[in-house]
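W.,

You were right to be curious about this one. When I first looked at the sequence I had no strong expectations either way, so I just let the prediction run and decided to look at it fresh. Below is the sequence, 206 residues in total, followed by the output.
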Amino acid sequence: MSECHSVFDFALPIHEFKLDDWEEKKKYIMELLPSDKECKPVEFDLTTETLNTNYWSKDAYAPKYERLPELFRPELDELMKRECCEGWHTQGLPWYEIADKGQYHAMHTHGPTGFVAVCYVKYDKYEHDPISFIAPFHDPVSGGQLSYTPELEEGMLIFFPALLIHATTPNRSNERRICISFNVELTGNRKVSYTPKEQKEHIEGH
C-alpha cells in the first residue's frame, strides 16, 4: 500500500454561544424594538420577500442601537481569540429583523471579509425554523450542495463568516421570530492559516 497523507482543510468556522444572564439581556433588547403598531414590513427590491427590519431606515441610526454590541463584549473577545486575532470592531450599526407569519430572508451574503453576529431574541425551537448556511463549494464526490442548519435556542448568539451564503425560511408560526444582527471586523497580525496546534496555543495564550 502506498503511503498517503490526507489533508482536510478549508473549513469555515461558525461560533455558537449560549448567552449568560439571558432574561436580563432579552428585556433590555426588547425595550429597544418597535411596538407591534410601529412594525411595518419592508418589501425587498430583488425578491418578493418581506421582513420587518430597520436595516434601510433612518431608525437604524438611533443611538440606542449603537450600544447593543457591548452586551456581547465577552463573546466578541472570545471570537477574536478563537480566530487568532488581536482586536475587533463593529462595521456599521446593528439592525433587527422581525418575521411575522410568512416572512423570511432569502439567500444572501455580507461581503468577503469579517463575521456576522446574529442573536436570537424571540425564538421557539418548536415553532420556528433556524437559519441555514450554504457552503461556497460543493461536495467533491457527489457534486451536491453542502449546507448546515444549527440547532438554535432563544438566547443564542452565533458568529459566521460574512462570505457564507445564508437564509431563513418563511415563518410558519403565528409567533414572531425576532433577531438582532451586526457585522464584525477582526484585526491584528493574523496569518492566512493556522494549524490546529497553533490555534490552540494562541487561544490558551490569551
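Here's what jumped out at me. The chain has a mean pLDDT of 88. And, maybe more interesting for your project: The first helix runs from residue 22 to 32.

Coffee later to discuss?

I.
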